[in-house]
Amino acid sequence: MTDPLIDAEEDGATPLTAEERDALIPSYVTLRREVNEVEQIGINDADAWAFSRRRDVLEEAFLCQLHKRMFGEVWKWAGEFRTTPRDIGVEPWDIAPQLRILLNDARAWIEYGAFPLDEIAVRFSHRLVWIHPFPNGNGRHSRLAGDLMAVQLGRPRLTWGSGGDLIAADVLRKTYIAALKSADGEVIDPLLAFARS
Predict the structure, then answer these.
(1) Residues 23, 28, 33, 39: is their CA dihedral positive or negative?
(2) How far is CA 178 from CA 4, 130, 187, 191, in A?
(3) Domain positions in the chain
(4) What's the pTM?
(5) Would the N or C end of the chain have less CB density within 10 A of its end CB?
(6) What is the CATH number of domain 4-195?
(7) Which tens digits make up the pLDDT trace of 140-151?
């Protein structure tokens, strides 16, 4: 028997373990596209919440709270670091240390003007998704965190492919994933271009 929450996973999406899938809150959701729809409602609410107040995106507690705001009506584990390994991201035991390193690096990038402001926001978003702290939603979380970082630095929000839906738009998603892989190899220009396209 197939599981429609797994079988319909998007290309490049992080697969969930059986235990993580069992943490789905809405009982009426049975298909991956339905998960995406209810998640999008939370993402929209979290976006409005995050941009309506003063916040410091360089705080671990804020990043966890942001993830919980985005996905807390859908998943019981929202806002909590994953405890299972993935094909991408750091080992679960290394999430908190790597996140602290990222936050300290980003503070230094800002203080010393190591990169242009947009590049700081994009590098921050990239490293956050590379760490992959949560069971799922890491790409969407890291892009919103990158947007918040850009605004915190006095720049406009990033557009990430003209603000398109990277879940629904296959070409945009493939371009984004290719740009992430390029950044993994220390070539940041494609991700910078995508973030402002």
Answers:
(1) negative
(2) 26, 13, 11, 8
(3) 4-195
(4) 0.92
(5) N
(6) 1.10.3290.10
(7) 999 999 999 999
